[in-house]
């Protein structure tokens, strides 16, 4: 079996059409999701890198990322080959070198019956390379959304009045001096994208800044989708849509101010950080269109890759192939996440009904962060903290969280 993984580091599930996003264009990933199995509740266990599955066949990890976003050295130790397709300084896009190198890499693998090709990119991690016309398309979309029917009528009335006034003014000018010509108006300067927002605290009350940030990220996601479309077409041209399994996932979602932080600043385990995409496209688009509502986590991806490659089970993950084929239910009744970052630490547990976030350490100088409880699935974006009104439920979930941590540690 051949397995090809696209690790879109920094990609939150909520930014893709397959996960309900209806305003960001991702047609190539949407097509892949339609041809594959979509796992609806894929939750990070420890947001960050994924090590080698150790599947006993040719394994290549392609680094299409900047060196400063490399995983720790131990994540690369178990790979048969580390192939660098890093961006060049003069490239128009961070994925240009991957697009150039990918055909030759696939040619090398044409006669290999079993391999694992893992492609990681930091395309969605700032500083972003933002294509200006794509960004402006999202700005134009904003203008169209804000214009009402009354605005349109007023605009037309003003336009008629302006035309009449312009005609009268033109007659006066010609009568005064037929040789006088007005200079053409200077075109408005284009609005630049917010290409390098600083990691740290973010004022969510600043709606203009938040909107500016969101539309910039939307342009980056759309451009990434178009670049992935080129790679997907190359796989299809070589028949690898029939002979290989494809996986699209992420190691963490890049926070964009939703809960007061931009980037990985504090380990606040909210939806935008921990809810990751996971799409499995089986050879020949087997079981296309299936959606899995149960919980999955990154160790399950490793276990599934090992199963696809015929390697024996290893580690704590669950093989998701029976789930993808509709032969079994997800093995996880809940998902647990833990993260330490910049002197802070937090634990979280998610069930089908609740999400509980429990801070365990706060850095000196930070205000204390209290446990937070959100009702699921109604409060998808975790904006209504119910902990104070449901202390008994919060205590039950925290006890389950700590017991599960003891079992797995």
Notable traits:
409 residues, Arylsulfatase, C-terminal domain, four-stranded antiparallel sheet
Structure write-up:
With 409 residues, the chain is an alpha/beta fold. It folds into 3 domains: 261 residues, Alkaline Phosphatase, subunit A (3-Layer(aba) Sandwich), CATH 3.40.720.10; 45 residues; 77 residues, Arylsulfatase, C-terminal domain (2-Layer Sandwich), CATH 3.30.1120.10. 34% of the residues lie in helices and 20% in strands. It is built from 11 helices and 15 strands. The strands form 3 sheets. Strands 1, 2, 3, 4, 5, 7, 9, 10 and 11 form a 9-stranded mixed sheet that branches. The chain has a 4-stranded antiparallel sheet with strand order 12-13-14-15, covered by helices on one side. Strand 13 and strand 14 form a beta hairpin. Helix 3 runs parallel beside helix 6. The longest helix is centred in the middle third of the chain and has 31 residues. About 10% of the residues have low confidence.
Largest sheet descriptor: 9 strands, mixed
Helix and strand sequence:
EHEEHEHEHHEHHEEHEEEHHEEEEH
Terminal Cα span: 33 Å
| CA-based shape | globular
Helical stretch tally: 11
CATH top level of the largest domain is Alpha Beta
Average pLDDT, rounded to a whole number, is 89
Number of strands: 15
Q: Spans with pLDDT under 50 lasting ≥5 residues?
A: 143-181
Per DSSP, what share of the residues sits in E-state strands of 2 or more residues?
Answer: 15-25%
């Amino acid at each position: 079996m051949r397995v090809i993984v696209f690790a879109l580091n920094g990609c939150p599930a909520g930014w893709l059409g397959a996960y309900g996003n209806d305003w960001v264009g991702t047609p190539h990933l949407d097509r892949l999701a339609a041809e594959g199995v979509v796992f609806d509740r894929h939750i990070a266990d420890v947001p960050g890198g994924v090590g080698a599955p150790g599947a006993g066949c040719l394994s290549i990890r392609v680094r299409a990322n900047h060196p400063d976003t490399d995983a720790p050295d131990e994540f690369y130790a178990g790979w048969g080959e580390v192939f660098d397709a890093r961006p060049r300084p003069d490239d128009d896009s961070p994925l240009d070198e991957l697009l150039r190198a990918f055909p030759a890499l696939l040619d090398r693998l044409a006669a290999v019956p079993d391999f694992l090709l893992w492609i990681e990119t930091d395309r969605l991690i700032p500083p972003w390379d933002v294509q200006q016309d794509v960004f402006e398309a999202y700005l134009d979309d904003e203008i169209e959304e804000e214009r009402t029917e009354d605005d349109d009528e007023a605009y037309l009335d003003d336009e008629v009045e302006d035309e009449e006034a312009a005609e009268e003014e033109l007659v006066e000018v010609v009568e005064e001096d037929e040789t006088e010509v007005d200079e053409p108006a200077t075109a408005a300067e284009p609005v630049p994208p917010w290409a390098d927002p600083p990691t740290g605290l973010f004022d969510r009350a600043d709606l203009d800044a938040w909107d500016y940030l969101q539309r910039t990220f939307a342009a980056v996601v759309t451009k990434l989708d178009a670049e992935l479309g080129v790679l997907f077409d190359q796989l299809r041209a070589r028949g690898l849509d029939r002979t290989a399994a494809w996986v699209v996932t992420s190691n963490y979602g890049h926070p964009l101010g939703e809960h007061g932080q931009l980037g990985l600043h504090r380990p606040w385990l909210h939806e935008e950080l921990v809810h990751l995409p996971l799409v499995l496209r089986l050879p020949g688009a087997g079981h296309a269109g299936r959606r899995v509502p149960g919980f999955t986590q990154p160790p399950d991806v490793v276990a599934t890759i090992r199963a696809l490659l015929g390697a024996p089970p290893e580690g704590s993950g669950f093989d998701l192939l029976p789930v993808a084929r509709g032969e079994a239910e997800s093995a996880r009744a809940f998902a647990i996440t833990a993260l330490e970052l910049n002197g802070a630490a937090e634990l979280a547990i998610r069930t089908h009904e609740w999400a509980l976030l429990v801070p365990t350490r706060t850095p000196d100088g930070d205000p204390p962060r209290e446990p937070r409880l959100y009702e699921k699935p109604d409060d998808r974006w975790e904006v209504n903290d119910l902990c104070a009104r449901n202390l008994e439920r919060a205590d039950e979930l925290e006890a389950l969280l700590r017991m599960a941590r003891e079992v797995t540690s």
